Amino acid sequence: MITESALPRVEKTHKLDDGVVRNLGLVGVLLLLVVIGIITRPELYSDPTWVKNNFLTILQQASAIGVVTVGMTFVIIGGGIDLSVGAIIALAGVWATTLATQSYGAAGMIFTALVVGLAVGLVNGVLIAYGKLVPFIATLAMLVSARGLAAQISGKQTQVSTNETINSIASTKLLGIPLLVWILGLVVLAGWVLLNRTTFGRRTVAVGGNPEAARLAGINVKGHTLLLYMLSGLCCGIAAIMLTSQATSAQAAMANLYELDAIAAAIIGGTLLSGGRGTIVGALFGVLVFSTITNLFAINNLSTEVQNMVKGGIIVAAVLIQQFRYRSLTNLLRRRNDPDKPSQHPSR
Amino acid sequence: MTQISRRNILLGSAAAGAGLALTACTSNDPASNAQVKTDTSGNANAAAGQKVIIGFSAPAADHGWIAAITNNAKAQAKQYSDVELRTVEAGTDAAAQRAALSTLIAQKPNVIVMLPYDGKELNAAGLEAMQAGIPVVNLDRAFPSAAAYRLQIKGDNYGMGLAAGKYIGDQLKAKGVSNPIIGEIPGIDSLELTQERTKGFNDALAVYGFKVANRRPAEFTADSGQAAATALLQALPKMDALWNHDDDQGIGVLAAIKQANRSEFFMVGGAGSKSAIDGIAKDDTVLKATVTYSPSMASSAISLARLIGQGKGMSDLVELQVPKEITLASETITKDNASKYAPLGF
User: Where is the signal peptide, in residue numbers (chain B) (predicted)?
Assistant: First the structure.
């Protein structure tokens, strides 16, 4: 048993653990993947231009899903889940690329995508916070209906974007770095500041960790939950424009299974699925691990089925490590706090 | 759940629609680009005959090809004064389509044209209709039992691969490339149709002694095509030819090629979408050809269902009745014949 006086110290140790050890571990995994790439395709890695290009490509392919993952991380830390992110992207993308919207130009398209994202997030938030629906059910229903609405609006056809400004976002570079990567960087930075340096961030952790305690502490839990889903929706709106620009089109089936990739990346990055704990930088590394695996499999012409199995294995490993370390840390603390009492897990 | 969905749709669309009301119309007018047979001069079969009620069912899919199938069937039926088309929504799975078909069978149409969600799962529905005395025209996804259909009209997936491989082989041989680097971007890899296309492609390339260097599957969508192509282009810094199985995902594949600034190879598409045919005619991208898998088969299916209903045969054939199996040829569209095929683009 952990004594109550030991609790704050557990939390403190975990923070340090999260921030440094986990991210170092993920950086290690990334480096390992690169080393495997170098060993298996040395002729590609011997060309510095290719290496630089490949690095930027990995980042670029991680950009849209990375933005979604930032929103997802907030929702999960806040004790919820958003299964509708892929569907929101499809709806926002399809709506922004209808001919009527396109006639308003790039600004009109971007505005539409962001408003649609925010609006769907608002509906999710209202259903969950005020309608008292379980987040899983509410966002699952939204997944189905938003894709349905997207199919309706698009006439079930691929909506091609003829707007050159939108289409050129994906190929534009600033200081040699793709614009999409800059957008990802900005969203990650904003997410990090919001989570770690503002009242909003502290409230998110409090609401996810113990909603009742948060309510007693004077936090408007319902209002905060609503904001979290709107934040996730907004991230989807941004991602919709990024993906539309990359594919120069949008359709109802776009961003398929993004919800699972985003949840997996957040969890690999150290976010607790039960809420109350998580980091933005970790989530970013989670996305990069997936993006790098895809790249590694592509350059070695390995099948995507095996790639998916490896991805699944990494998710399981990440959670196992998380549990293992949590247990061993608790044990360590227990021994430290009460040296006379033997550990309940003497083997560890 | 239904209630939630409805509520979500209402709330979601109302909220998002505020201030954006005029964006709600779509860019797709279903009737405007349908493929119909209109020129019937000199065809005795075109003369109005006995009235035929045709029941029609296709899955509600979100792919342009399936949308074109339904549009074509409706547009072709309108061409005949003696045809009444009764369509039923087939929902999104085999069970829903089975339920829809039993209500259709109960209405006793003269003929049923259906694109089954899955041929194996809807075999029983085909048998039921046939036993009720309603001839079934199976569109594209074969029933395992020959007793479950009167006519089967489908595309040729293996032939698509064969045509794409032959075009690429011929071009590379003409250029004198001996050890070409060939890329392939199929659609959903677990589907039998994808496997048949790939097999045809490999068989055709083998004739020239060529093989695929790298293969990255996508999901028949433009965004997945973009991702798969980006990965493929990284893996093959130099490439000679690329076959992309599907023109819808090809929009994303072409975007990725443009973003990567690559043009040292040529690309062949698949299915024959309008944008692909237009692109081939313009000749301003790496896309030089596409092999057809045309949804025009739905228009033909309605025409043939009408003949079956009227007990007539196909006028150029000796037989008095419509044949039992028709497989469309996969044709190769290049710059030379693009204008001829433009009306068939979907």
Answer: 1-23
Whether residue B255 sits in one domain with residue B186: yes
Cα–Cα distance for residue pair A167/A249, rounded to 1 Å = 9
Task: Tell me, yes or no, if B225 comes closer than 8 A to chain A by beta carbon.
Answer: yes
Q: Are residues B103 and B198 in the same domain?
A: no
Nearest-10 Cα torsion for A180, A185, A188, A191: -100
Say yes or no to pLDDT of B23 above 80.
no
Same domain, B240 and B165: yes
Q: Is residue B341 part of a domain?
A: no
Domain membership of residue A15 (yes or no) is: no
Structural domain count, chain A: 1
Q: CB-CB: which of A127, A153, A253 is closest to B221? A: A253
Q: Tell me, yes or no, whether B299 and B286 share the same domain.
A: no
| Residue B346 included in any domain | no
- Return the pLDDT at B61: 63
B228 shares a domain with B121? no
Inter-helix orientation angle B2-17/A85-97, to 10°:
40
Q: Is A346 among the domain residues?
A: no
Domain CATH code at residue B179: 3.40.50.2300
Does A153 contact B26 at a Cβ distance shorter than 8 Å? yes
Mutation to test the A interface, candidates B22, B62, B232, B277, most A Cβ within 10 Å: B62
pLDDT digits (tens, 9 = 90+) for A13-39: 445 555 677 788 888 889 999 999 999
User: Between chains, do B223 and A112 touch, taking CB under 8 Å as contact?
Assistant: no
pLDDT-based confidence at residue A347 (cuts at 50, 70, 90): very low
pLDDT at residue B39 tops 90: no
pLDDT tens digits, A241-288: 999 999 999 999 999 999 999 999 999 998 988 899 999 999 999 999
pLDDT tens column, B295-339: 999 999 999 999 999 999 998 889 999 999 999 999 999 999 999
Q: Tell me: pLDDT of A103 over 60.
A: yes
Instruction: Return the number of other C-beta atoms located less than 10 Å from residue A7's C-beta.
Output: 11
The tally of domains found in chain B comes to: 2
Q: Does residue A4 sit within a domain?
A: no
CATH number at A246 reads 1.10.3470
- pTM given for the model: 0.84
Residues B78 and B163 in one domain: no
- The domain containing residue A31 runs over which residues? 22-333
Asked if the structure places residue A175 within a domain, the reply is: yes
On the 0-12 / 13-18 / 19+ scale of CB atoms within 10 A, A319 is middle
**Weakest-pLDDT range from A25-39, B11-25, B104-118, B145-159:** B11-25
Residue B37 lies in a domain: no
A246 touches chain B (CB under 8 A): yes
Q: Could you tell me if B113 and B210 lie in one domain?
A: no
Q: Does B8 touch chain A (CB under 8 A)?
A: yes
Residue at B299 is within a domain: yes
Average pLDDT value for residue range B338-345: 89
Alpha carbon distance A2, B184 (integer Å): 58
> Starting from the edge strand earliest in sequence, which strands make up the sheet with B151-154, in order?
B83-89, B52-58, B111-114, B136-139, B151-154, B325-327
Contact B223/A at CB under 8 A: yes
Residue A54 and residue B234: Cβ atoms within 8 Å? yes
- DSSP per-residue string spanning B250-310: HHHHHHHHHHTT--SSEEEEEE--HHHHHHHHHT-SSEEEEEE--TTHHHHHHHHHHHHHH
How do strand A249-250 and strand A159-160 relate by DSSP bridges? Answer: antiparallel
Structure-block tokens of residue B146: 């020959």
Decide if B15 and A119 are in contact by the 8 Å CB cutoff: yes
Give the closest-approach CA distance of A279 to chain B in angstroms.
27
